[in-house]
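FAQ: What does the model actually see?

It sees only this:
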Amino acid sequence: MSQTVKQGASPAAGHGTSHGMRPRHPVAGTLAVAGYVVMIVPILFVVATAFTAGSTLRFPPEGLSLKWFGEAVAYTPFVEAVVSSLELAVLATGLALLLGVPVTLAIHRGRIPGKGLLEGLFLSPLVVPELVVGLALYQQLMIGLHLDNFTTLLLGHTALLLPYAVRVTGASLALTDPALEEAARGLGASPLRAFVTVTLPMLRPGLISAGLLGFVTSFNNVPLSLLLQTRDFRTLPVTMLDYVQQSYDPMVAAASTLVLAATVVVAVIAERTVGFAKIFGGINR
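And it is asked to produce this:
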């Protein structure tokens, strides 16, 4: 009888052993830790340098001081560049969402041939080098159509942000139930009203995520902005790049730290409002 009990218990024990323990991957864990170190350590060096009391970019810092933050905030080219970058990023993000949401609806809900080709076309700015995009815009829009620099730069940033709008809102739309919109239309709602009252609220996490990704990408863009901007309209990253080429004081590190802090604040607000799981969770599904 005891032998029978042991024989009956052994499969359960084996089952618990095989499914209760997760396989460990030390190589993957080591690579993940190394990747985090490579990404985070340079940022920590920049932040530490921003608080130095010295007059040159060096690590470890020579004492602690906040004077370079005051210098960065009071430096007129940086302030003007921040306003220009904010203006460009907000406009480009808004245009990308206005164009990307209808494209997403057409791809996922429409009955059009070649949906995969259409989606690949709108995702192509992710794989095309930005300098190539900027050169094409310069030749076709500025030289060919005689558009001004700001309009060309705005269209270029909008093109770069379209993949985020289409991909992220598409992932959010794929998680919604189309029967809800069909039910609203069956109850007498027009297509526009059904979209505004039913579909758009369900797309809110995707719209927020696409807006955040687009805004950060546009604000931090260098290649396209460097090629298409003028002396009258300069973005912050390019202005900081020009400053580094002329001076070695820690003011650029202080400005970078302020931008990093603002990004963290935006991320915290997004986490508190909708949560990162809701924002980015559906993109891999």
